[in-house]
TrEMBL record:
It holds the Pfam family YjgF_endoribonc. It comes from Siccirubricoccus deserti. This is RidA family protein. CDD domains: YjgF_YER057c_UK114_like_1. Residues 5-142 form the Endoribonuclease L-PSP/chorismate mutase-like domain. InterPro entries: Endoribo_LPSP/chorism_mut-like, RutC-like_sf. PANTHER family: ENDORIBONUCLEASE L-PSP_CHORISMATE MUTASE-LIKE DOMAIN-CONTAINING PROTEIN, ENDORIBONUCLEASE-RELATED.
Length: 153
């Protein structure tokens, strides 16, 4: 077990099997030293664990948990892409999509669930650029979707 997988274990995180694409796309694309990972929704055991819209029945704390689970699913795809997670040298960028109504404005707080976990897992290499936007809906009524770009050696 490598350093990053040991850190995941310390955090009580077991990586799931990477989710298969549900449409005409690939789960990740490797180009040079970068891995771009398609958006991951908060799947747990093949089912959406957090559904609905922020500000309309889904709390910020629940949204943060959804974003955190999305990041776990990103890391599962990352492991499939690079094999050994210790090869990851930087979390380059995360993109967050938050299902919310027009009155909701705390998207950044929700996305911190993923960003905070990136730093917990990868340390300083987990600090990243980020975009977070609100959207009217996501696949399967997921509350959050997170995509990522990672550098590896």
């Amino acid at each position: 077990m490598g350093r990053i997988e040991a850190r995941l274990t310390d955090l009580g995180i077991t990586l799931p099997a990477p989710a298969a694409p549900v449409a005409n796309y690939i789960p990740f694309n490797v180009t040079g030293p970068l891995v771009v990972i398609s958006g991951q929704i908060p799947l747990r055991d093949g089912k959406i664990a957090y559904a609905g819209k922020l500000g309309s029945g889904v709390s910020i704390e629940t949204g943060q948990a959804a974003a955190r689970l999305c990041f776990v699913n990103l890391v599962a795809q990352l492991k499939a892409a690079v094999g050994d997670l210790d090869r990851v040298t930087r979390v380059v960028r995360l993109g967050g999509f938050i299902a919310a109504g027009p009155e909701f404005t705390q998207h950044a707080q929700v996305m911190n669930g993923a960003s905070d976990l990136a730093v917990e897992v990868f340390g300083e290499a987990g600090r990243h650029a980020r975009t977070t936007i609100g959207v009217p809906s996501l696949p399967g009524d997921a509350a959050v979707e997170v995509e990522g770009m990672f550098e590896f050696a």
